[in-house]
Design brief:
With about 325 residues, the chain is an alpha/beta fold. The longest helix is centred in the first third of the chain and has 17 residues. It is built from twelve helices and twelve strands.
Amino acid sequence: MVGIKDVARRAGVSPSTVSYALSGKRPISDETRRRVDAAARELGYRPPAAVPAPAGGRSRILALSAPLRPGVHPPEVMRSAVSVVTAARRHGHDVLLLTQEEGERSLRRVIRTTPVDGLILMDVGLEDPRLPLLRSLDRPAVLMGIPADPQGLTCVDLDFRAAGEACVEHLAALGHRTLALVGSPPEAYLRRTASAHRLVEGFTAAADRHGLGSCVHPAESAPGSAGRLAERLLRERPALTAVVVHNEPLLDPLLRAFRRLGARVPGDLSVVAVRPDEQAPAPCVPMTSVSLPAGEPGARAVDLLVDRLHGTSAPEVVLLPPLLTVRAGSGPA
């Protein structure tokens, strides 16, 4: 029978360090936690303190990991969380909401203390540190986001690469030759958030394919930063005729800043947004947009998780196709 001392010997640490790393009760360095995780997986160690699902039945509780990290827009997170709760209720499940920033530690704590049937994860990174834990669990999980390596996982999200391409294709068809992408906050790129990176990939790939000049500007979401960003874009890119915005809180302040600087939308500058259509208040100009279906990924994630709970196989990746709606915010170059 493999014990905690065996894991400690394999990882080259003390038994107490193994206990802290697996329980999340005390801070442990990422490098040490990875060694302990790897040793536990290699030896097939299962902590005896873990709380199993109720014998002969289920708890009918799902855990939703929605960490409120820097660079995350809380209203967008809450819209998705509500969609998960609504869909779970339809299936007769309650939802335990986890918002701590240390996602892996929170998951470990919940798994050790709460008999949750399965997990749903938001704000997924390309190399998300929670993935090794998910792959070692005896409970199903669904990611609302697509990591770089989805093998062995179940994931659902908007096809952000296709969304970036759709924005550029629309603007290229209107004759625009110089484009800018106002992206997510810098923290999202530093964490390698999958949605932010994939949209940049699609934007730059389509721009290169059409031979267009393009640039990407990660942007703080504070409305006060819109004026400085608008000035910088117009000063550094005098040939600029179109902007794609993937930063919901900054959209309306940026439109107002362009107008103050004498750049009419869409007369001088076309703007395409990647944003929730249901957001209020509406921007000062009706935006051509790729809508982010806040409710659909959450509902699909719950459906996929319930399928797995019932023993039904689920695809590794479900990509929701983007829908671009043309409105007054974009016009000919």
